[in-house]
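Write out the 3D structure for:
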Amino acid sequence: MKIIVVGLGLIGGSIAKALKQNTAHVVLGIDVDEDSLLDACSCGALDGKADTEDLKTADLVYLCVYPQAALAFAGKFGPLLKEGCVLTDTCGVKGVVCQGMEALPGRYSFVAGHPMAGKERSGFSASDPSIFVGASYIIADTGAPDRAVRTVEDLARSMGFGRVVHTTPRRHDQMIAFTSQAPHVLACGYVMSPRCPEHQGFSAGSYRDVSRVANINDALWSRLFLDNREALVEELDELQRNIGAIRDAVASGQEEQLRRLLQKAAGIKRRFG
């Protein structure tokens, strides 16, 4: 197939590298940053740059950009895509993307996707196909033809993903608020403590584990938070309630209540991992 990767950041760059390493497909790229394009071509992650003529003959297009940029690209260039072309995204929110795609014209088949992989660093220089090995690839149901969905599934497995998870856009956003977005909020709030600048010599695994994702891409994550505000606010309210219960038990010296809360948390973690 002729595959075009739009956006050569961490995820787009990693997808391009994984496809070139593990498949025989032709992989072309589009990015506003010429340096990223040149780097991707020179290291073998791409077979070359894509232009509008390539879009007309593409078999599959990955949109590896922010949600609004994905919608803008699809609105502008979607009508150029041939009938049967598969258009898929890698955005971390699905509701706003899927709703936006429904309103756009085009003969292509849209498959909503989300590779569950990443790093604290961003940009093509951080791209690494090994981040996909064993990870989950989520596909949200948009009514795309089975053939298109199978194509995205097969490519995900070719890139090293361990499993493909099917869900709805709403369920995706609810779960991502819990598994990804709330931890990023927690990490950011945690390192804002006035004790953080003094942690050297006092910190070990616990500090490292909780603070790791506080090294955050503010432009990306602020947009993801806002695009998923309803589910994220619901999850943060739950987190505040649970922290508040532990805080109150500590403040009032209620050891038995505190132990019950900690035992409950430990039991949940042991049961569900």
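The radius of gyration is 21 Å.
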